[in-house]
Amino acid sequence: MREIHASAISDAVKKLCTEANYDLEPDMLRAFDRALTTERSPAGRQVLQMLKENAQLAKTQKVPYCQDTGFVVCFVELGQDAHVTGGALGDAINEGVRQGYTEGYLRASIVKSPFDRKNTGDNTPAVIHVEVVPGPQMKIMVMAKGGGCENRSKYKMLTPADGIEAAKEWVLECIRTAGPDACPPLIAGVGIGGTFEKAAILSKKALFRELRSPNPDPAVDAIEKELLERANRLGIGPQGYGGDTTAFGIHILTYPCHITSLPVAVTIECHAHRHKEVTL
Amino acid sequence: MVKTGADGIKEVVPPLTDADVEALRAGDRVRISGVIYTGRDAAHGRLLPLIEKGEKLPIDVRGQIIYYTGPSPTRPGGVVGSIGPTTASRMDKFTPALLKLGLKGTMGKGYRGQAVKDALRQYKAVYFGAVGGAGAVLSRFIKKVDVIAYEDLLTEAIRRMEVENFPAIVVNDCYGADLYEEGMKQYAR
Fold first, then answer.
1. Percent above pLDDT 70 for chain B
2. Beta bridge pairs of residue B3
3. pLDDT tens digits for B113-163?
4. pLDDT at position A37
5. Does the distance separating the beta carbons of A64 and B81 come in below 8 Å?
6. B79: nearest CA in chain A?
7. Looking at this predicted complex, what is its ipTM?
8. Nearest residue in A to B70, CA atom
9. Right CATH number for A148-272 from 1.10.600, 3.30.1330, 2.50.20, 3.30.160?
């Protein structure tokens, strides 16, 4: 049994939180450049240019890309031959969030109770999803999830008779209604299948895939490409000022589902697409 | 004051009059300079009961602009952290009452509801869009920040800010026009 100390987990999470907020992944930077060559709208191009500068400034000055430095959503793939020592896994992750957000000048955006709305002051706790997998390692994937776009995420339980065409329409409807509220160009994470909660979790996890990388399932890949093309014909454009760049990607994860069900969850992610991962 | 700069971009300096607001049209690019105030969900939640009771607000909103934002913490020696706009529609419930008191501008991102659009016409006011998620760049246009009310709300406190050439765009004007609707119509294929 391999041992992983809680402090190593905290250190890793701290680093992932700060780096995610300062340093956008290269696939996003390429997406800005690419969109600048295809966007017809002058206002849209100005927005894209500003976002490019924003990413550069965030990285060089270590100032967060967006003032909403997110709710930390943490996916852990815990190898069944690894053992956490020195504390509980959840506590270790939250300690990393606390250190990352307080020492990194990141915003505390979490309230302790949905009713009394008192800020916890250090952006804890994280939302943590743990999956046990074979092997001795631990993979930690962190997303700093913005609230504005999260508020436009939606779920719909379709019927088997509705079929995939209805699922496609629903995804596009989610993007259309999110519109300028969700800071386009956006990315839609889509979970199809499983149960109510499984679809929602898949829709989050789908966002971690690199932009423009093919979906491993060719049939699903074709659906993603069709949806992206259709989304970019909606006309919403960067910041909703009108334009051709409404979405940078539609990423779908599927799971088997019940004979009665066709669950479709859509997590809307803004262009402040901040995520990092590490394997311990 | 509103006047058009040499490059066609409109210079906006609060306090704004009805005539200033009438000079702003949906789609106009603007640069805002001078004093603006921040306020978002929690601060608005405290202002509304004061308005309903006819009590004095911590800021005189007449002619002013409220920017919907909650900045990230300031590094030592810095002016402010990242400071982009938050989703404006969450403030829709509170906005007409503030416009009635003479607030002339709000700034955020995303759709406003019909009641706000109607109030913009009725009370002659304007809704500006700032680029969401560009908080690092936008921080460069902020020259001075003071928390002036509700410090306990942390990032949601009301701040008085001195800004210089802060870039924005008119989304909803006092004539009922909406940049989001017009832009989408123009580029939908």
1. 100
2. B11
3. 999 999 999 999 999 999 999 999 999 999 999 999 999 999 999 999 999
4. 98
5. yes
6. A63
7. 0.95
8. A67
9. 3.30.1330
Burial degree of B48 (CB within 10 A; 0-12, 13-18, 19+): middle
Mutate one of A175, A241, A270 to test the B interface: name it (highest B CB count within 10 A). A241
Residue B20 to residues A56, B2, B3, B49: CA-CA distances in angstroms? 36, 5, 8, 29
Q: What ranges do the domains of chain A cover?
A: 2-22+65-145, 148-272
Q: Rounding to the nearest 10 degrees, give the CA dihedral for residues B145, B108, A117, A72.
A: -90
Domains defined for chain B, CATH in brackets: 39-174 (3.20.130.10)
B68 neighbors B39 (Cβ within 8 angstroms): yes
Q: Which residues of B touch A63 (CB under 8 A)?
A: 72, 75, 81-82, 135-136, 139
Residues in chain A: 280
Task: Find out whether B158 and B43 touch, Cβ atoms under 8 Å.
Answer: yes
Q: Cβ–Cβ of A43/B81 closer than 8 Å?
A: no
A126 — pLDDT class (breaks 50, 70, 90): very high
Structure tokens at A156: 């719909």
